[in-house]
Each structure stands twice: as structure tokens, then as C-alpha cells.
Design brief:
The chain contains 17 helices and no strands. The relative contact order is 0.08. With 319 residues, the chain is mainly α.
Length: 319
């Protein structure tokens, strides 16, 4: 990721020149390779524009290449609140992979299709395509893809308030990430384990999971995932009656998310975030809340991570 970031201007120029030369297939290969980089380094809008241009110029793209461009575009659209469009893009990608006989590519498209289904609240559809996606990944011994399918099955279970089942899926996903070395998948699995523990009133365990998730996200310089971990740890601070700390953490997280385009991921607990913010505002009063919030927003990424991880006292009895 760091090497790609250092070369991003060159990569963007190469895609642009490919499109100028009418070489949409070259641009498509770049998109297939760079999709997850665009997501993890908060360059989704950049990737989205490039893939939309590739589709506009790629009328003669072979089915498999068009499917790959659509997949890369879907990754960049995810989190933008354009859930119906995400559903349509990923469905078309899956259909094209299926027509080409590419079971592995179809598994990736179905995975992203599940993001749209989860955002739209269609848990039955999400679970159905995730099971199919997981089967495809396992056929190809793809531990990376398997982990992300399992993680999103955990999301569906959390939405159904099936917390033990969600934890089992997330634990299986975490085991898969140890085989693949995937820090993003591990971060998500730990974050979901934290949510399951929090919902089960195991708040100390949730705090440990949120911290472990933040360490992984920050090591990969994944600011979006780091921000969601900070929101989780703001809930921990609130439970410890450290209300100013909670407000600072929420401010720091908000600034990171704004810089990333304020993505809305299905793997985060947005309701918990809203409850923590409302409780902190009420307890502090508007003046103190705003002061602490602004202090958090003023932190740089590394400073915010250090502040978040710099405290780890136990929760008071009964919390």
C-alpha cells in the first residue's frame, strides 16, 4: 500500500494515458489491480472517476474485463449511500463473470453485492449471496475472499441480534486472515467481535477487540477503519464516565471520516456511535462538548491513534 501510494500520480497518469489512447483494456487491468488500494487509502472518488471513464470508453471490452471494471467501480461506490446503484453494478459484474465461466470472479462480485443488500436491509439476499460467494472462494482456496464473506455473514447475524453466531463467523474470518496476512480482514473481524461482545454486555472484551482492530488499521494507514475503531473506543470511554475523552475520540474519528469522504460501511455500528455522541453531548453541555470535539478534530492521524491507544484502564464494576 505504501509503494502504491508513493506511485499514485504515475498510476493515475498511466490510466489516463491508456484511456486517451483508446486502450480501455489496459485501464481495466489497472482498476482490477488497484480497487482495494483505492478503498484502503481513501481514494475511492479517484478510482470511481477512472473506472466510470473506462466504462464510457470501453464499449468493446470483453465480458470478463467489463466485469472486472464493474467490480472495481463497485468497490469505490460502496459506502457512498448509492446503494441501489451499488446493487445494480455488482449484479451486472456477477452476471458477466458467470457468463464467462469465471467462478472466482463471480465470488468477488457477489461479495460486493452483499454490501448493497446489507445496506438496503435485505438480510435474506445478503446471506444467500454471501454463502454462494464463500463457496466460490473456498473452491479456489482463497483465504482473503473467504474472510471477507465470513465477516459480512457476521454483519448479517449482528443485524438479526444473533450475537454468538456473529462471533463464530468473525472468529472463523480472523483465522482465515492469519493464513492470508490480510490486515483489513483481520481489522474487520476484530471490530465485529467487539460489536458482538458489546451487545452481549461483555464490555471489557469489546474494549480489547476494538484496540486490537485499531492497531491493525493504523499499521496499514487505513484511516477509515481506524476512525470506526475510535468510535467504538469512544463508547468504552463513555462507559468509563470519561466523557471528554469520548468527545475527543468522536471528533478525531469524524475528521478522519470527512477526509475520506464520510463512507458508510455496513461493518460499523452507526447506531452505537449516535448513542455515544448524544449521551456525551448531554452530559458535557454544548460548550464543553464543542471544546473537546474540536480538540479531537484538530489531531493528526498518528496523534489521534496514539491518544486513542494511550489509555487502557478497566471498566468500573457493573458496567
Amino acid at each position: 500500500l505504501d509503494r502504491l501510494e508513493a506511485e499514485n500520480d504515475n498510476l493515475r497518469a498511466a490510466i489516463g494515458r491508456s484511456l486517451e489512447a483508446g486502450e480501455a483494456q489496459t485501464a481495466a487491468r489497472f482498476g482490477w489491480a488497484l480497487g482495494m488500494y483505492w478503498v484502503m487509502r481513501a481514494r475511492r472518488e479517484e478510482g470511481r472517476l477512472l473506472m466510470e471513464q473506462t466504462l464510457a470508453q470501453g464499449g468493446e471490452l470483453p465480458a470478463k474485463m467489463r466485469a472486472r471494471v464493474l467490480f472495481a467501480l463497485a468497490l469505490c461506490v460502496n459506502g457512498s449511500r448509492e446503494d441501489q446503484r451499488l446493487l445494480a453494478i455488482s449484479e451486472e459484474s456477477a452476471a458477466l463473470f458467470r457468463r464467462d465461466g469465471d467462478r472466482h470472479g463471480e465470488a468477488y462480485a457477489l461479495l460486493v453485492l452483499s454490501f448493497a443488500a446489507l445496506q438496503l436491509g435485505d438480510l435474506d439476499l445478503a446471506e444467500r449471496v454471501l454463502e454462494e460467494s464463500l463457496e466460490g472462494f473456498r473452491e479456489h482456496e482463497d483465504a482473503w475472499g473467504s474472510a471477507h464473506s465470513l465477516n459480512h455473514l457476521a454483519v448479517a447475524s449482528l443485524r438479526r441480534s444473533s450475537y454468538p453466531r456473529a462471533a463464530r463467523y468473525a472468529e472463523e474470518a480472523l483465522a482465515a486472515t492469519r493464513r492470508s496476512g490480510d490486515r483489513l480482514g483481520a481489522n474487520v473481524a476484530l471490530h465485529l467481535l467487539a460489536q458482538a461482545a458489546w451487545a452481549s454486555n461483555e464490555h471489557e472484551q469489546a474494549a480489547r477487540y476494538f484496540r486490537e482492530a485499531l492497531v491493525l488499521a493504523s499499521e496499514a494507514a487505513d484511516k477509515t477503519s481506524s476512525a470506526y475503531c475510535m468510535q467504538g473506543l469512544a463508547a468504552v470511554a463513555g462507559a468509563r464516565s470519561e466523557t471528554q475523552r469520548a468527545a475527543r475520540l468522536l471528533g478525531a474519528a469524524e475528521a478522519l471520516l470527512e477526509a475520506a469522504g464520510t463512507p458508510i460501511y455496513v461493518t460499523a455500528d452507526h447506531d452505537l456511535h449516535q448513542r455515544v455522541e448524544s449521551a456525551a453531548r448531554e452530559k458535557l453541555g454544548e460548550k464543553q462538548w464543542t471544546a473537546a470535539w474540536d480538540e479531537g478534530r484538530a489531531m493528526g492521524f498518528e496523534e489521534a491513534v496514539a491518544y486513542t491507544l494511550g489509555k487502557d484502564e478497566a471498566l468500573p464494576p457493573g458496567i
